[in-house]
Automatic annotation (TrEMBL):
Residues 35-259 form the Solute-binding protein family 3/N-terminal domain. SUPFAM superfamilies: Periplasmic binding protein-like II. This is Amino acid ABC transporter substrate-binding protein (PAAT family). The keyword Signal applies. It holds the Pfam family SBP_bac_3. The keyword Hydrolase does not apply. Residues 1-22 form the signal peptide. GO terms for molecular function: ligand-gated monoatomic ion channel activity. Residues 35-258 form the Ionotropic glutamate receptor C-terminal domain.
Length: 265
């Protein structure tokens, strides 16, 4: 009986080890899996958005993610679409390994997550219709109807920095929606990232006006879970390499027609 019991015990332990390896394999992170799972709010052109097929994620950040994955030794990238207002919670809940989706650097994100060094320049701007000459600075937004994407630094800027009357503010789930309301006359201005504003201006010639742009830079970083500093540090080195060998410049010129990956300070 004792000998038989030892065999049973050994068999049980072996089974437990097999199960443990199986579970760890299913839950591998970006540092261990052959697939890099990238969280995106892919309704944010030209940074990340759906192609004409409605399925494929394309854009500046998508190209950056693919290059990063290749240099990390990954076989592929899986883009995981997520609403912006819940994207950081989803990251920390291991829905994906990293957010490469226009993450502006601010104090709260630095405290709650692991951010890389900046890889693209950005700032807040005001967009109006071309024939609107009444808005030339943030001071002119007082009493005006202003839109922005919910959960973004554009919202923070309108509410916390400018302290605009919230009765006149409209927050939208998608960055494309305030442009639709601006066209329809339901709002008078949009607070948005300059990378998005330039896309809309270049694709709608004569329709929109870049009425004002902030002097303060708001650079964009890649965002990892708070605990994943190892992979973040690897990606920081790859960002340096991509900037040094001209890869970042090439990707930027493809999507913006200019290099927006310099002057990051």
């Amino acid at each position: 009986m004792m000998r038989s019991g030892k065999k049973i015990f050994a068999a049980v332990m072996a089974l437990m080890l097999v199960m443990a390896f199986a579970v760890s394999g299913c839950g591998t992170t970006g540092g261990k899996s052959d697939i890099l799972r990238v969280g995106v709010d892919d309704s944010y052109p030209p940074m990340e958005y759906k192609d004409a097929d409605g399925k494929t994620t394309i854009g500046f950040d998508a190209d950056v993610a693919k290059e990063l994955a290749k240099r990390l030794g990954k076989k592929d990238v899986e883009f995981v679409s997520n609403d912006w207002t819940g994207i950081f919670q989803a990251l920390e809940a291991d829905k994906f390994d990293v957010i490469i989706s226009s993450v502006s650097i601010n104090e709260s994100r630095l405290a709650e997550h692991s951010l890389t060094k900046p890889y693209i320049a950005n700032k807040q701007v005001i967009v109006t219709l071309k024939d609107n000459t009444s808005i030339k600075s943030p001071d002119d937004l007082k009493g005006k109807k202003v839109g922005f994407q919910a959960g973004t630094t554009s919202e923070e800027f309108c509410k916390d920095t400018l302290k605009l009357d919230e009765a006149n503010l409209s927050a939208y789930p998608l960055v494309t929606q305030p442009f639709m309301d601006l066209d329809a006359g339901r709002i008078e201005a949009i607070m948005v990232d300059i990378v998005v504003a330039k896309y809309y201006l270049s694709n709608n010639e004569g329709k929109y006006l870049l009425a004002w742009e902030s002097e303060e830079a708001e650079p964009i970083a890649i965002c990892f879970p708070k605990k994943d500093t190892e992979l973040r540090d690897k990606v920081n080195k790859i960002i340096d390499e991509m900037q040094a060998d001209g890869t970042m410049k090439t990707i930027s010129e493809k999507w913006f027609g200019e290099d927006v990956t310099k002057n990051l300070e």
